[in-house]
Fold this sequence. Notes:
- The chain is α+β, with helices and mostly antiparallel strands.
- The chain has four helices and two strands, in the order αββααα.
- It has helices at residues 2-32, 93-106, 116-119, 130-134, and strands at residues 37-53, 56-71.
- The chain is elongated and about 60 Å long.
Amino acid sequence: MVLYVVGVLAVVVGVAVSIALHEVGHLLPAKRFGVRVTQYMVGFGPTVWSRRRGETEYGVKAVPLGGYIRMIGMFPPRRGTPAGMVSAGSSNPIASLVESARAESLEEPAPRRRAPHLLQPQGVAEGSSSCSAAR
């Protein structure tokens, strides 16, 4: 019985590692070419563990039978649709799924907060304008 459980765990871990390596194959080129990747997840369902490093959240989900990375602008807009807009829905369920994915890929995450010392040039006192500081 113990050997059976060890075998099942070994297969589950092997599949999870295989999925993780596959998703790294998407993650690395995307980051290399400047695409914003907001999530790298192994598995589906509720999140079991995650950690944010930079702009990407890395994590493990409850069902280790797949994985995904979320890239901003992953699906291009349909031809003839103005930039930043999603076209009207369709009665075709497959087309609706594609349009939904396009709409979600257009969502921008909240901008990163910058440290206060990076927002103000050095040598400029708080509350003063740069013109008065240069005089």
